[in-house]
């Protein structure tokens, strides 16, 4: 067993959510993918997936190992890029695309620090909740939240964005506080339609997994709009923690179902293969890995 290959396959299975999807992606048979994961579990001395559930869910040990794998593989990729880029000057224009809320709250505050380190770089930050065509729009680096499916792009993991269920005090006063995921069926849940399975919210608690079909009278493709609707007391949402961090601190929004862990979403920096040897693009990705680690991942 090649440990690094098995770790890469394990990470892709977690991010894609199934063995068969990774088998198709890597042009391998599903039994070969299962064999790699089983060999990894044998090497580790315990299971990484809770196979007693109908849906693929990580064990607690598997969740911790997944985060370590992301870190190790990211450092390996960074070391490889560093060797390849050599002494190329880090200067010139850098076009960066990111989702609107994540770009505003998580990327924009870091730009000044990056430019202090690399004063000869000029950044054009473009915020759009729809995935832009990197080649058509001449984007150097794009930040993607969720599974990266475009096999023509190179994806570098930046960590996970942790999610939580949020509602306003006024909404909870009118509709009651859900104490377990199954009670969400009685609530007006606001779905974020840019996610593949926006109408199903998944949670784990210890070794138990919960897959909840949510319903509501509104959906949106904008996390900014969802935040406003939650603040107005329209409904309840499953959203990234960074989106509501300031609102929770002010008390205008409450965190709900804190005993349950919602499925985290992977955060990746993606670029076209033509940008692989761009020193400024690689420097920016390494900078994001350094500064987003504490924000994107569970401590």
TrEMBL record:
Pfam families: HTH_1 (PF00126), LysR_substrate (PF03466)
Cited Gene3D superfamilies: 3.40.190.290, Winged helix-like DNA-binding domain superfamily/Winged helix DNA-binding domain (1.10.10.10)
Signal sequence, renumbered to the chain: none
Domain annotation HTH lysR-type: ranges: 1-59
Keyword Cytoplasm among record annotations: no
Keyword tags: DNA-binding, Transcription, Transcription regulation
Family stated for the protein in its record: Belongs to the LysR transcriptional regulatory family.
Database matches in PANTHER family: HTH-TYPE TRANSCRIPTIONAL REGULATOR, TRANSCRIPTIONAL REGULATOR
Name under which the protein is recorded: LysR family transcriptional regulator
Record organism: Pseudomonas asiatica
């Amino acid at each position: 067993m090649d440990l690094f290959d098995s770790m890469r396959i394990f990470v892709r299975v977690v991010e894609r959510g199934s063995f068969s999807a990774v088998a198709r992606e890597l042009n391998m048979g599903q039994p070969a993918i299962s064999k790699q994961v089983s060999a990894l579990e044998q090497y580790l001395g315990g299971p990484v997936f809770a196979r007693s559930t109908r849906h693929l869910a990580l064990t607690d040990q598997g969740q911790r190992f997944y985060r370590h794998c992301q870190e190790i593989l990211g450092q390996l990729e960074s070391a490889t890029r560093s060797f390849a880029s050599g002494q190329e000057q880090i200067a010139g224009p850098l076009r960066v695309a990111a989702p609107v809320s994540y770009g505003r709250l998580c990327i924009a505050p870091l730009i000044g620090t990056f430019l202090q380190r690399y004063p000869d770089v000029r950044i054009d930050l473009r915020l759009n909740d729809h995935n832009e065509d990197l080649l058509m729009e001449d984007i150097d680096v794009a930040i993607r939240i969720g599974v990266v499916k475009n096999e023509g792009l190179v994806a570098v993991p930046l960590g996970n964005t942790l999610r939580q269920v949020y509602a306003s005090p006024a909404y909870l006063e009118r509709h009651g506080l859900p104490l377990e995921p199954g009670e969400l069926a009685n609530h007006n849940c606001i779905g974020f339609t840019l996610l593949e399975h926006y109408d199903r919210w998944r949670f784990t608690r210890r070794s138990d997994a919960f897959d909840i079909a949510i319903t509501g009278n509104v959906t949106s493709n904008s996390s900014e709009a969802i935040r406003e609707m939650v603040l107005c007391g329209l409904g309840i949402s499953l959203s990234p923690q960074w989106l509501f961090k300031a609102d929770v601190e002010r008390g205008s929004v409450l965190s709900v179902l804190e005993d349950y862990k919602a499925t985290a979403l992977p955060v990746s920096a993606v670029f076209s293969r033509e940008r692989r040897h761009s020193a400024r693009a690689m420097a920016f990705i390494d900078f994001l890995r350094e500064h987003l680690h504490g924000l994107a991942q569970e401590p």
